[in-house]
Amino acid sequence: MTTTQASAAAQPSTAAAPLGTGSQASRVLGVVVLVAMAVLLWLAFVASPRDAIQGDLVRLLYLHPALAWTAYLACFIATGASIQHLRKRTVGSDLLAHSAVELGAVMTLLTLVTGAIWGRPTWGVYWVWDARLTSTAILFLMLLGYLALHRIDAAPEVRSRRAAVLGVLLVPNVILVHQSVQWWRTLHQDPTLLDRNFDFGTSDLLMFTMVFGFVAISLLFVWLLLHRFRVAWLEHQVESAWLDDAIEARRAEALAESREAGAR
Q1: Distance in angstroms (rounded) separating the CA atoms of residues 115 and 50
Q2: pTM for this one?
């Protein structure tokens, strides 16, 4: 591939650029998300009874594992897009990875916060250097590190490539987070939904609400990712247009200086 071809491949297709942050499909998905979240709230706070041991604290379990799952999902998307960016240097893969990491950082932070709120009355502490909690905190720091690398003072391709290298390492850490309760016997309990024999260990309504929480939060994540990606693409289009105008202005200025020097 020649330099010109490589440069063209790195540029986004104007025809493929979104005209706004929403589409007909995303608007339909938005309605579905609103309905799903409303149903989840009704199930969690109205239909579902208090737990005999945990009381109302059990309602956090309808949210906390689902947030952790979407954090995992964000990391899988970011790692896949980072690998694609390192292979092909496409703008779309870089923007997708960056969008997924932003949402992943938010979901991981919410996972840590809801876990601390649940842990204080259950374990007696907001935080402990437990294997699951510590590995999740490391994952959160890696996500922040990716965002920091993406904002360093360097050429866009250089900072995107450096961030992508860190993005590739997200999934291995997700595996570490997920398996931490199996590999190290510390404070955090085993997986909540499924035990090691893949048998359900909770009541039917609690289980249904938890599974529905996974579906509702996942739909919300997809809707947010679609919009964040489209916003990122539009931002890139504006930045590229500004850069083209600046180059054209500098070229015209240099041409005028050359003509003026020739006239002397």
Answers
A1: 19
A2: 0.80
